[in-house]
Amino acid sequence: MLEGLAAWVLNNYLGQYLENLNTDQLSVGLLRGEVELENVPLRKDALRHLDIPLQVVSGFVGRVKLQIPVARLRSEPWVVVFEQLYGVVSPIRLNEYDKDAAAAACQARKINQLDGLEASWKAEQATKAGGHVAASSASWFSFGTSIATNIVENIQLRIHDVHLRYEDDQSSPGQVFACGISIRSLTVQSTDSNWLPTFVRDSNSSNAVSHKLLELVGLTLYWDTTSHLCSDITIPQLVEMLNKDINHQFVVQPVSATACLRRHLTPNPLKSRTQPRLACHLTMPSFPVHLTDQQYKQMLLANRLYDRLDKAKHYIEYRPRCSVKESPVEWWQYAMQCHIDEIHTKNENANWDVILERSADLVDYVDAYAKYLNSPNGLTSDEKDVVSRR
């Protein structure tokens, strides 16, 4: 049972980022309650669900460990550990962009949002007396919700040795620049009101307050105005290159910080203007920032490229496969088609057939939503697809 639960958690929350994540990779110590993955590569499409014109070129996670206190779920926290997280990101190549896969990822993102809303609704219904959930089911959901709340509230996150790098050879033709962020360690854990780590019990009090302590060590940010690409090197070569103590052009020198976050858990609005729902006290030494003119110009070029790619990916089916010099006529036709397509779309939608079709879809959506509100089982996969497309 533990192995199945761990596999479900890892596949649902890490499956879209890690390559070939399956139960065969799991090493579960049932008595110790540990799930461990080693040397898992990052998916090339790990950023596709974010709908941004960036892609993962290379990367891997050296170790992912999930520590589960099997016999003490109500008294000890779950611990999630990431070690040696390395990744290289670059702008998408329009000639390699898959519009169908991007549309499928967008649809999956909407389905996940519906799943989250449905889970929140079920948890809310389970806490109500009566309603659509039977008393026996309500007690079971209440028990499960209490455990889940304790787990989420007390979960500890430990991240060690992170290096994420962005490299760009498209913004300025003939020139390659790169920027990166590295973190020596990052820990997040629950504390008491004195900011001492402790296990927080589930509290239903209207005055309950959650305390989180975040500790960041060795954060650096660099922007190298002259660099080289890492797209064709192997994982061992990538590790060696990112671990090299080379002369980076640092924008932010290594800094450390501690953040104390206080959050009021009451679902009711806070009526006091002097009492915020979220309060964060950040402790940080000097935070030197150094930025040269060339670095600033390259940042502007990268931002313009980002906007250009974000617009161009919507018209990828019209984009010529040749260069402008090889066929300027095709590129003129491409520019005109991008504008004509938007005009045709508006004209096609301005007729009674489309209006009737949209009306029928709206009726299906209302029926599905009504069933969602009146059924403790929620929506079927087909019904979720209908709702997510509206």
Automatic annotation (TrEMBL):
- Pfam families found in the cross-reference section: VPS13_N
A GO BP term here is:
mitochondrion organization
Please give the start and end residues of each transmembrane region: none
Entry keywords, A to Z: Transport
Q: Where is the Chorein N-terminal domain?
A: 1-375
Q: What is this protein called?
A: Vacuolar protein sorting-associated protein 13D-like
Q: Which organism is it from?
A: Hirondellea gigas
